[in-house]
Amino acid sequence: MALLRVYPTITLPLSLPYHVIPSKPKTFSFSKFTVRNSNLQMQLQPHESHKLVVAVKEKLEKEHHSLPVGKNGRDDEDMILWFLKDRKFSVEDAVSKLTKAIKWRQDFGVSELTEDAVKDVAQTGKAFVHDFLDINGRPVLVVVASKHFPEAQDPIKDERLCTFLIEKALSKLPPGKEQILGIIDLRGFGTQNADLRYLTFLLNVFYYYYPKRLAQILFVDAPFVFKPMWQLVKPLLKSYTSLVRFCSVDTVRKEYFTKETLPSNFRD
What is the superkingdom listed in this entry's lineage (predicted)? Predict the structure, then answer.
């Protein structure tokens, strides 16, 4: 893999989604989109979880007063609750992870990402949010690996597109749904498409800033040349490896979509 670019990164163990009990759906904003949050509870009564939310808010205000407020800010109760669930309702852990997430959103300019801002790189067709949900009612984010050329394309623009598409996919969540499906189309993948930096960014974004938003990742028709890349990526996934499924195009057609909703690049 002569063209494989390896960048150091810090990774943490990833945990699997919790078993939760749904309650009344709510909505909140991400960037230019409105993202639905079914406000799931992990075996906690509403008043109990609210006390923890208040505790996190107070701690953030006291220790990180400079963080922005409002949607996706330090006083956003929906966002606080989501990170509490991710951190098994540990106030200390939720504050730590929230602080990093809010700072990242501010520094990365997530709220400023628009279709026009990512238009140039989006036109390559390397990644897109599918127009239809899968058969499980989940928004679908598709990455076409053969159209990604790290040596010829700006990595910052790729990261901005990645973030924008995650936001867009989350904005399509129907009531009662909280996770999206990721599909990586590996047909035609070659060494010229290998980019460990981009994959590391993607994994870290989902772990640090969009925890438990990814239901499953499909690696479709992976060629033999992808194997060395997978050996590098797999340790970064930790327990998230259980979300990965290597499958064929035929599996995607039969198990995840109807004929009417199948993405065009997987049609005959």
Answer: Eukaryota
Mean pLDDT confidence for 171-194? 95
pLDDT over 90 at 2, yes or no: no
Q: With helix as H, strand as E and coil as C, how does 200-259 read? A: HHHHHHHHHHCCCCEEEEEEECCCHHHHHHHHHHHHHHHHHHHHEEEECHHHHHHHHCCC
Instruction: State which amino acid sits at residue 172.
Output: K
The structural domains of the chain, with segments of one domain joined by +, span 26-111, 119-266
Nearest to 209 by CA among 167, 245, 156: 167
CB 74 within 8 A of CB 64: yes
Q: For residue range 34-91, what is the model confidence (pLDDT) as tens digits?
A: 444 444 445 677 778 899 999 999 999 999 999 999 999 999 999 999 999 999 999 9
List the alpha helices (DSSP H) in the chain: 46-63, 77-86, 91-108, 119-122, 155-171, 196-204, 227-237, 249-256
Say how far apart CA 219 and CA 234 lie, in whole Å: 12
Q: What is the pTM of this model?
A: 0.80
CATH 3.40.525.10 assigned to domain 119-266? The reply is yes
In this predicted structure, what is the pLDDT of residue 1?
40
Which residues, in sequence order, are CB contacts of 119 under 8 Å at separation 6+? none
182: helix, coil or strand? strand
- Decide: 42 and 84 in contact? Cβ < 8 Å: no
Domain 26-111 sits in CATH at 1.10.8
Q: How far apart are CA 103 and CA 10, in angstroms?
A: 17
